[in-house]
Amino acid sequence: MTTTGRLFTTNARLSRVATTTTTPREIIIDESGDLIIRVYKKSSAFDPKFQSSIDSSKTIDGEILAIIKVTKKTLVDKSVYFAAMLAGGFGEAKQDTIDLEDEQLWFRHFHDSFNEASYKVLIPTIWGALKIAQFYNFKTEDLEDWFGKWLKDNGGDKLEKFTIEELQTLLYPCQEFDNPHGFAHATRRLVYETEGHIKELFPKGFSKWSGKHLHLHPRIITSINAARGSLKTKIHQGIYSRRFFSSSCSCKMEGYFQYGLALDKTGVWPLEEVMHGRDAFSLQQILQGLGRFGYKAPNETCNLCSQDFATTVVGPTVDRVQRNFEGLCLDCIDKGEKRDWDFEYRYHQARRVWDMAEAGCRFEHSEPTWYFSWMARKQAADFFERERDARKRKASEMD
Ligand SMILES: [Zn+2]
Ligand SMILES: [Zn+2]
Questions:
Q1: Is 68 helix (H, G, I), strand (E, B) or coil?
Q2: Which of 110, 310, 342, 365 could be a cystine partner for 78, CB 3.0 to 4.6 Å?
Q3: Could you tell me the distance, in angstroms and rounded to a whole number, from the CA of residue 363 to the centre of ligand 2?
Q4: C-alpha–C-alpha distance, residues 327 and 182, integer Å
Q5: Ligand nearest to C-alpha 254
Q6: Where are the domains of the chain?
Q7: What is the distance between the alpha carbons of residues 325 and 230, in angstroms, rounded to a whole number?
Q8: How far is the CA of 143 from the centre of ligand 1 (A)?
Q9: pLDDT digits (tens, 9 = 90+) for 90-143
Q10: What is the 106 CA–ligand 2 centroid distance (Å)?
Q11: Per residue in 294-342, pLDDT tens?
Q12: Distances (CA, A) of 243 to 246, 257, 269, 353
């Protein structure tokens, strides 16, 4: 990136920014550019304002973050939006300076000039790029490679470097930039490492209002929480023991007590109590806690009661649950309109193949990933459903 303090000062059109508090960054994307874009962040009516470049009698509520030099023709060629704006009959067409809300990533993309800093942007900038894409109808596919590299550079191969809060804000970008590995690792870590109910988060600077339309479909969040619940059930099924009840040994009461005591002493039992509510543990904390299970056998002779349940029951359960869920698969979720779900359901059940290599899952996975992705799938209404909905709408209009 080239930045200079002098480059733009000769351009008289760059009117002084009346009440802006910080000096905007000056960024040259194209040395021989013929258009200056002033990228600004919206503010409330009482915060900084600046003079519009199109109509100097007007002000815009916002703060100019950056002044970017680009080429008109490149934008016109690469984007329908800019073609309409810069080559059409709008006021902007004749301008050599325009004001746009946020986002230099897109301009870098249009000019094929991503730089080191493009891969170090913060998460709100990624959301900004998505918001702009929706607003101007830019193709998110165009930034998929950039996002994939950003994700790896900042999060590592399995997104292990991100915090839980960061992962909560990355679910949506992973989905929108169609990154199946990122989405799987993020959903997997959230299922295992969230303390309590899992939800998605807006990053700093975004709210219900400014982030409107920028969220996952609720069925996906429901499915992520269902996966957590299912793992809880698997721990319970593996560990809760009725084996003492049917034993004919005389030490079974002592054995049963010692087993219960050992569970109690782990501090992560019973699951219903420790996995929900304010001070809930994450699944990962529970699996680790179960490592403290220390059963004191009442004797060394009884087949049942002298067992080392830590190695015969608890340990294997912990291992199984730890490996059970590989995260959600975007391909299993997304191909709604192309897939015949009834057929697939039977196909999977019959063949015991879960990643549908032939249907294009981009990573290998087993049944739980398929099942919870299947639950979160996009499914277009079929002809029968559309007809019925239309009939009902008509009937209610006539009421
Ligand atoms: Zn016994
Ligand atoms: Zn899949």
A1: strand
A2: 110
A3: 7
A4: 10
A5: 1
A6: 1-113, 116-216, 233-323, 329-385
A7: 10
A8: 64
A9: 777 778 888 877 666 777 777 677 888 889 889 988 998 898 788 777 789 989
A10: 30
A11: 999 999 999 999 999 999 999 999 999 999 999 999 988 876 555 566 6
A12: 6, 13, 19, 33
